[in-house]
Amino acid sequence: MSKVAETTTTTQSEKIVQSQQPGELQNIQAAYRLDGRNYLKWSQLVLTVLKGKGKISHLMGTRPKPGDPRFEAWDEEDFMIMAWLWNSMTPEISDTCMFLATAKDIWDAIQQTYSKARDAAQVYEVKVKMIAAKQGSKTVTEYTNQLKALWQELDHYRMIKTKCLEDAVVLKDFIEQDRVYDFLVGLNP
């Protein structure tokens, strides 16, 4: 009889319950279900869980060749990861990738369809949320955390490469100053 220890991490709208036994992916549950609008958070959750379980190679495409003694175990794990991926999506989305052959195929198809990194529409949505963010009845800490989450999302979509260290420092200072203004605009008077 194996013991399964559970670790629960709860934030505003997500909960992850992970098995502490290395090969038991079937006990991983994700309250974040990919619904088409939350790809960034969902993909981060998937990567974190699979990396933590030592199974990230299934999404990267590194696998033993058929005939390799490790292939059968890898293949069984891949099917388990495929099932977990499908269960972490809404039925409408999982139906679109139900007949793909590997977890990597599913990951790539979902990434191609829903990844909006550097997408102007996503940047626009985040900026609208930032402008609408007000302290209201929130504590200063809650308001700050709301803005920080939006800034992190914006940073993901807007990866700006600089040519030299001096430019990076100037850009960082500019962004920090801009964020102080964002913060001050939403504070209660």
UniProtKB/TrEMBL annotation:
> What superkingdom does the record give?
Eukaryota
* Protein name from the UniProt record: Uncharacterized protein
A Pfam cross-reference name: Retrotran_gag_2
